[in-house]
Design goal:
The complex is a heterodimer of chains A (533) and B (481). With 533 residues, chain A is an alpha/beta fold. Helices cover 41% and strands 11% of the residues of chain A. A seven-stranded mixed sheet of chain A has the order 2-8-7-6-5-3-4, sandwiched between helices. Chain A has a three-stranded antiparallel sheet with strand order 10-14-13, with helices on one face. A two-stranded parallel ribbon of chain A has the order 1-12. In chain A, strand 6, helix 13 and strand 7 form a beta-alpha-beta unit. Chain A starts with 13 loop residues before the first helix and ends with a helix. In chain B, helix 2 runs parallel beside helix 18. Chain B has 481 residues and is an alpha/beta fold. Helices cover 45% and strands 13% of the residues of chain B. In chain B, the strands form four sheets. In chain B, strands 2-9-8-7-6-3-4-5 form an eight-stranded mixed sheet, with helices on both faces. In chain B, strands 11-15-14 form a three-stranded antiparallel sheet. In chain B, helix 9 links the parallel strand 3 and strand 4. Classes of the chains: A alpha/beta (533), B alpha/beta (481). At the A-B interface, helix 2, helix 4, helix 9, helix 10 and helix 14 of A face helix 1, helix 3, helix 4, helix 8 and helix 9 of B. Chain A: Keywords: Aminotransferase, Pyridoxal phosphate, Transferase. Chain A: It comes from Olea europaea subsp. europaea.
Amino acid sequence: MRRFVAHSARRRNNFTTCVLRHCTLPLRLWSSTSTSKPCYFSGSVASGGSASAPPLTLDTINPKVLKCEYAVLGETFILAQRLQQELKENPGSHPFNELLYCNIGNPHSLGQQPITFFREVLALCDHPVLLDRAETRGYFSADAVERALQILNQIPERATGAYSHTQGIKGLRDTIASGIEARDGYPADPNDIFLIDGASPAVHIIIQLLLRSEEDGILCPIPQYPLYSGSIALHGGSLVPYYLDEETEWGLEISELKNQLETEKSKGITVRALVVINPGNPTGQVLAESNQREIVDFCKNEGLVLIADEVYQENVYVPDKKFHSFKKVSQSMKYGMEDIPLVSLQSISKGYYGECGRRGGYMEVTGFCSEIREQIYKVASLDTCSNISGQILASLVMNPPKVGDDSYESFSSEKEAILSSLARRAKTLEDALNSLEGVTCNRAEGAMYLFPRIELPKKAIEAAKAVNTAPDAFYARCLLNATGIVVIPGCGFGQVPGQWHFRCTILPQEDKIPIVVSRLTEFHKAFMDEFRN
Amino acid sequence: MSKPLDYENLNENVKKCQYAVRGELYLRASELQKEGKKIIFTNVGNPHALGQKPLTFPRQVVIALCQAPFLLDDPNVGLVFPADTIARAKHYLSLTSGGLGAYSDSRGIPGIRKEVAEFIERRDGYPSDPELIFLTDGASKGVMQILNAIIRSDRDGILVPVPQYPLYSATISLLGGSLVPYYLEETANWGLDIVNLRQSVAQARSQGKTVRAMVIINPGNPTGQCLSEANLKEVLKFCYENNLVLLGDEVYQQNIYQDERPFISARKVLMDMGGPISKELQLVSFHTVSKGYWGECGQRGGYFEMTNVSPKTVEEIYKVASISLSPNVPGQIFLGLMVSPPKPGDISYERFVRESKGVLESLRRRAQIMTDGFNSCRNVVCNFTEGAMYSFPQIRLPPKAIEAAKKAGKVPDVFYCLKLLEATGISTVPGSGFGQKDGVFHLRTTILPAEEDMPAIMASFKKFNDDFMEQYEDYRGYSRM
């Protein structure tokens, strides 16, 4: 079935089309049904059941579900899982004996160790019997014991198995607010903090509040992390792209924001918010403070909510850049907090802690009227509360051991080791990529990814078309089949049309990096030899 | 210029949805607590908050050992932890791809999904496919995912029992669908009436709606009734005839307080029926670690199992789950432990059984104490709590009370519950939060306060209620006839 996309010009959002459709493989089971014909089931009543189609099929499923995509765990990943299974059942069936997952920011799955202090505190909080008995208490560092006691005193009945306040345990939010204040130099209010099962569910809540219909749009960077495109599609709105400039290290230009805003307005779209990912994903750039001030001004002047995805705030690898929170930046300007509606996101999944599997994080919500805050609370309350371990971890991340604490030395050396290793791996991979024919790669100033651009020869592009695949997806698939390296094609994140990229994490352990480099280099040379013009 | 996100330009669906469990009463109770008043929170099924102790075994395994693997490496660990907890911790850690801190498969760790499938097979006697089981951060997330897949517009209706757990009404509102109510019959022990169901569906269709699915909560929340096998058969047939997906909320399956109607899963009944219906009727069943005798609400662990849903549809549901990456790993391990608890012969078995039985027997006693306590109050009638965790007494408010409520700008049962709260510190949820017949009022309380506190709580309630009725009644009062 030919899936060359030719959506009519009537469609407002061509970019979304590009992101969502170009990556399709004919064998892919997702989104391969009749999206071109109306999805509404006419509601005929079945008598006796068996004569009609079941109530829930691809024809009657919510069409927004069909529309949304999430490339990080999409077709390339699914193919990788299949190869993994084949290797397991039939070793030697592929030219590699292991998969190298560079598709997702999931550090512990690739051998990164958890921070000891954090795990000590968690173990004690969840099984306080360990705290109460002297012989077991001795297994843990004194400050971990102290911190666990402090946290347990903030939890009614010391019950970590109980639902908490919907926004999260008050004492933990107090700790986080202090941590934010220490970071920014400006006060933070614990009542502005909503602890959530990871930053992703927080994004869903805010997007849900903002989008009333397809006529509401949200400005998203291109390239972007496809949680945004996915959830905008799921909630029935429009993604309004603004392009980051690869030539200037993925710079964000206000003029570009303005142009896109004006274009959408003229089409009748009400742009409601601006998403900024800082440090960027997949692009890794860290914004300069002056840039951030321009962005705040822009939001203020255009009446937009600013959604600041700051989950990589602890991942900055270059000495010439520093992370500044948007909250700090806006507070340092002439505006009062109530002037700038801002949602700041932080997570326990990244940084040097990498506790992805816990599902923890928070959104700090400032500059909204009380009625909106009540609505945010109400939607959050449907899930009752976020998981308690994740809440505790968030408070530890925002208030780690300090100088003088028992665990400070070991904590610092663990943290330092991880961060400096990440910086080294980023540089090694960046250099390796830049040495490949037709590949240019901006440095990873922060986050966990590299996003190189590949100039694909015409023959390769034609070969891709022949199998009904986007050229970068074709490259990624060939790479996977030849080497076991799993990357995500740039079409999953968005890119300037006609350009091709892929996203590769910097997370394989340092001893695996040379293998990744050598396999990639060898593959690329062979690929170019085959398809060179 | 109006603000970018103001009440006026908020998504209408968000405005429409309500969730009383954490609504007005709860907020007022929290305020009072801050002011120093002692509050007894009986508004939410949150056992550990009211003193129920966590079971020892899972806390040892998951929390201590999986959480802090350096404990596992310590040579003396065998002196502190029983051998079976150590083995289990190692087992679950080996199933993860990097410990508790790594994202797992978006559907949940395959090894744990397999354990869930094995549990379902042991329970029902029919094999279950792990590929059709998705683990979620609590059953609520699963419910939202499935409803999101079903609801396309406000022309799609979902049959929901009244009274119901307001996750359903709130989620349907949020997703822009239509709630089609079917009334449970209080005088018939909250029984389900097929005639009423048919009427509800007919009415919805006459309004141009397509009824897509039916929710049953078994055991019921807030009503506690346990469905009989015959009942379940009727429901399944009904769904089949009307082309509905059946959503079986079975999170309270371990909480059964009578012996006439033990828990039987919708899936078992479906499979027992055999024939085309067992191969065609679409069913989604939900379960959790938050209830039962586990009560681990704060972990956020649960699953849903799909029956007769095509692989392509399952793929789409998987896709949406993948946007949130993965359910939390400790919660998944709790679920694994729940579905494969210690067995006879295991070192931890005796203690585990003792603790679980202790919790269940106490819940059974408390269910009785509360029912009897309510029934001894003036103008209060209460069905017995056959299962789940709640008591849902009917409060027959005198007309003068209803008037006073109107004057105060409150719904009558909210008025009553607020007064109850101010007078006694007992924080309940008014029946209007769950739905009820017009002019009939209830409140929901949990049966979770500690057993030794129960007599005092019921006495306090009785005093308040009888004084309230005294205050607002005419001379005759209401008869129970």
